[in-house]
Write a structure and sequence with these properties.
- The structure is a single chain.
- This protein has 405 residues and is of the alpha/beta class.
- The chain contains 13 helices and 14 strands.
- A seven-stranded mixed sheet has the order 2-10-9-8-5-3-4, sandwiched between helices.
- It is globular.
- 49% of the residues are buried.
- The structure holds pyridoxal-5'-phosphate (PLP).
- The site of pyridoxal-5'-phosphate has 15 residues, from helix 3 and helix 4.
Length: 405
Amino acid sequence: MKANEPLFIEKRIIMTPGPVEADPRVLSAMTNPIVHQFDPVFTNLMDEVKEMIRRIFKTNAEQAFAINGSARAGIEALLTAIIQKGTRVYIPIAGRFGHLLAEIAKRAGANVHTSEVALGQVHSFDTLKREMEYFKPHVVAIVHGESSTGTKQPLKELGAYCIKTGALFMVDGVATVLGEPFEMDAWNIDAAVTGSQKCLAAPAGMSLVAYNDKIKGIVDKRKKVDQGLDPSSDNPKFIASNYLDLSQLQAYWSSERLNHHTEATSMLYAIHEALRLVMLEGVDERVERHAKNMQALKRGLKSLGLEFFEDQNAGLNTITCVKVPREINAAVLKEDLIRYFNIEIAPGFGPLKDSVIRIGAMGHSSRKPNILTFLSALESLLGTYGKSIGSGTSLKAALDGYANR
Ligand SMILES: Cc1ncc(COP(=O)(O)O)c(C=O)c1O
């Protein structure tokens, strides 16, 4: 280690399900000087962030803010606030991140009921309805985009059914918000969460949440402020987590400006800039960009004779999983893409570790040059592994895709 030399990290083309490339404007915003978290300059940024978060979730909910920590910080903050001992929570699982919801809900003391579909598939509404009729959940928590398998779960009918039964509806939109249509209010979603490191094109380290007055009512009833701030504050129903205590976090993000934690100043700058870039591009336009780049990517992959793992009727705009051909070693392919082309992709999770590769095109990574460079690199490597298709096949297929859209 040479302490007197600046850190230099070589730029990669990141085609993983996250983290993805951050927009250069976001990285540049992070180099601004540190100001105190109650400096009016900073609190003004916070207010603007709240408003922009409402716009990306498409909600009028008053409660919309960012929580320091990766996406699961937001998931955990919401679930630990909603769940008390024995709360009945139904979690339909379609892969690794559905399991994560169940993991967090159980740790929060919920009575969890799950149902699973085969990996690569999504739940039919009939099944969801049947499971709800059986379990009568207080809360339904579900992943919208299962990034471990590349599938998108339809939410609209489920949201309407939750209204009918009185169940609260919480959605993990980590792999979908800004990459897929996401309509928090129109789909009757009570609480939603996303992360900074995917379609928002910022580094990992902030999760964004929004929740309506039904959830706020629960949070308010559990409010307990740190003793060192208010010795008289007490509440037998207090939320188990302190760092992720929504009752104090929402007070920090309100005009009360409760001094709960030290905000991650530079990450707030990053989120503010990333959200401003979304406002500049347009929420729907960003979704369309993801759709356009993914369809070109898929055309290119298909032209190479590769097969998709996920049911194509449920495919995402943000991530796809490709079955690794028998004659190819997934770990070697991943290594070679980095070694020769500086391109990163991701392996499958758990049971899919060696059989699929996961390719993401999100945020600043969802760009035409990335798609075309990745396809060209993949095609050349497949050629060196003896799976030659004919040079330029995938590039032509992808370009045709762009031209047809
Ligand atoms: C759908 C989904 N949910 C939750 C998470 C967890 O997010 P994090 O790793 O940022 O905590 C991820 C991360 O990739 C994800 O893709």
